[in-house]
Amino acid sequence: MTYETIIVEKRGRVGLIVLNRPESLNALNEAMMVELGRALDAFESEANIGCIVITGSERAFAAGADIKEMQGKVFPATYRDDFIGNWDRVTRTRKPVIAAVSGYALGGGCELAMMCDFILASPTAKFGQPEITLGIIPGAGGTQRLTHAVGKAKAMEMCLTGRNMDAEEAERAGLVSRIVASGDLVEEAIRTAEKIADMSMPAVMMAKESVNNAQEMSLTAGTRTERRLFHSLFATADQKEGMAAFAEKRSPQFKHK
Ligand code: CAA
Fold first, then answer.
1. Can you tell me which atom of ligand 1 is nearest the CA of 138?
2. Out of 15, 61, 214, 226, which could bridge 49 as a Cys pair, Cβ 3.0 to 4.6 Å?
3. CATH number for domain 6-197, candidates 3.30.420.40, 2.60.120.560, 3.40.50.150, 3.90.226.10
4. ipTM beyond 0.85?
């Protein structure tokens, strides 16, 4: 498959997607989001891929939706065509997706990173929702996912003023799972993805589903669903293997990868 706006590679059992519009700091345009969706579809259907990493450049993960492409749009068409309604493809990915963020992750770029399962950041990362400075508001989940991630106070301040968070503040606030030294970010994201891809895939996918349920469900419904998923894993050969390996003091060799 050929791509114009992204670079797609396989690193063993890890699918790597590099956003690649350097002339606009990886501004997210329609073509890029369609290609990102195609690359995710391809990795989802490839049995050998166990985890996906999305990254950008040193300077920018993505500086937001492409303002120049968006500038001339008018309300009836944005509504009729459900503009950016297809941008949430990442959230429907059943395999885990890691965002590796260096530089700017602004507007739609911050929203795309937050759609991933977790964010690894380099010390240069800057997160923000500057849409308000353009006379609009975030439209790809920023007001919702940022609030879930960092709480109302910070999310509200960021969405109302457009101020950025640096990597340290983002880590303290819980937006970022960990900061990784600059230059090492993508390799560390791939190492982390390899570790995940080496686990039992049904367990990985159920863990992902269950953590995500915490954003959507009540505690009672979420814990009940978690327990049912937990029970179902006792039907897998990998549960037998994982526990036998522990008892025999060896590494597990999971079958369902
Ligand atoms: N859309 C289109 N082009 C963009 C862009 C964007 N979001 N961000 C940067 N670019 C382009 C610039 O226009 C510039 O192109 P030219 O050389 O042709 O002029 C090039 O990328 C480099 O950018 P700068 O010269 O501005 O670089 P800088 O280092 O001085 O500033 C920046 C970097 C602070 C990120 C600045 O580019 C900026 O503020 N970008 C816009 C950020 C933004 O507002 N994002 C939100 C977009 S709206 C959105 O995302 C809606 C949504 O919720 C889905």
1. 53
2. 15
3. 3.90.226.10
4. yes
